[in-house]
Each structure stands twice: as C-alpha cells, then as structure tokens.
Design goal:
Layout: H1 3-28, E1 29-35, E2 38-43, H2 46-87, H3 98-133, H4 141-172, H5 174-216
Antiparallel strand pairs: 1-2
Helix pairs in contact: 2-3, 3-4, 4-5
C-alpha cells in the first residue's frame, strides 16, 4: 500500500471518528431559553456532563494539546541549540550550507509557534477548569460579569492562535518573507497587465462607437 493511499485512509478514518465522537452532543444536550434573547445548554445525562467538561473540554482540548506542544517545544529547542553549536565551531566558520540554514529557520519558526500556542492555551485551560469547578456555585452579578470578561478574553486568545501562524512564519523566516513579497509583486504586476490589456481592447471599441454616433448625427 502506497503512502498516499495510507494517508487518504487515515484522513477518512479521522473524519469519521471525530464525527461520531461529536454526535452524542446533539443527542445529550438540550437548548432552553434562559432570558431575553438568550439560551442555555443543559446536559440530559450527568455522566455525559462530567465526560464533556472534564475529558473533552479540559483534557482533550486543553491539557493534552498543551502537553504535546510543550514536549515538542523542548525537543525543538534542543535541536535549535545543536544547530547553533554547529555554527560556532571553528571548522564551521564558512557560510552554512543551504540545508542547514533552512533547518535553522524551520526550527526557529516551530519554536515561536509552540510558544504562541502555549501562551494562548494556558489561560484558556485555567479558565475552563475554573468554570467547570465553580459551575454549581451561586454567583452575584459582579462575579458573573468578571467571569464573562475573563472567558471572552481567554477565548479570544485561544482562537487568535489559529491566525497567528502565518504572521509568526512571516516574521521569523527571511526566505518566506522574500517569497511572499515576490509573490505579491508578481500578482500586482499581473493585475496591471490584465488591466492594461482590457483598456487596450476596449479603447478602439469606444472610439468606433463615438465615430458611428457622430456620423449618424
């Protein structure tokens, strides 16, 4: 079996697994009106509520990804440290080969990416754990407003991480910046050429229409 077919099978199995994994939420959770223009989700099963709060949200969405990113972050830092040591060795005074320079840039990008994910995930995990523990506690309006603000900020940081990868790679890699701006310039030049070609084609047509109108008059 080829690697491409194996990758396709794994992608299909992943989609099926996570689709089936999220299906019980549709069955076990009901939506009820809470106040004016507001609704609240209530679990029909207490056991599934614990599973949703402590395993899916806390472990599967927060602790497990954070642990994986920290582990690979340490390994990435170790790899980058080895590359830096190779750069300062006496026999490596000449310019690094292209492969080693690309490896160094890639390691730097990965380290920044993992740092960004850790910074955005830790507050989200702490806030999720706090909301899960204090879910059954009676709270006044001030505390509720403070918790809503904290949830909004941590959610913003968590979802902002999905858009931060592009900017991290663009800032940390000189090669990527050159290719990106070169692509922008080529796209802009192509648009100018298309606009010029359209104007060249439409100009004689407009002149012919003006001449025809003048003759008819």
């Amino acid at each position: 079996m080829s690697k491409i077919s194996t990758a396709r099978i794994l992608c299909i199995l992943t989609i099926v697994f996570w689709s089936l994994h999220g299906l019980p939420i549709v069955i076990m959770v009901n939506i009820y009106p809470a106040a004016a223009n507001q609704t609240v989700c209530v679990n029909r099963s207490i056991i599934y509520g614990y599973y949703l709060n402590y395993f899916i949200i806390l472990i599967l969405y927060n602790i497990l990804p954070l642990a994986i990113f920290i582990l690979f972050g340490l390994l990435t830092w170790r790899n980058m440290h080895k590359i830096q040591r190779r750069r300062i060795e006496p026999q490596q005074q000449q310019r690094l080969p292209t492969t080693q320079r690309q490896e160094y840039q890639l390691t730097k990008m990965l380290l920044l990416q993992i740092s960004s994910i850790s910074i955005s995930t830790i507050p989200y995990a702490i806030n999720t754990l706090y909301n899960t523990i204090t879910n059954q506690i009676q709270k006044d309006s001030l505390r509720t407003a403070q918790e809503n603000l904290s949830t909004t900020v941590t959610n913003f940081l968590f979802y902002l991480n999905f858009a931060a990868s592009f900017y991290i790679y663009l800032i940390s890699s000189k090669t990527l910046r050159k290719k990106f701006f070169r692509k922008l310039l080529s796209t802009y030049s192509g648009c100018k050429q298309v606009t010029h070609a359209i104007s060249t084609i439409t100009a004689p047509t407009a002149n012919n229409l003006d001449r025809t109108t003048t003759r008819n008059n």
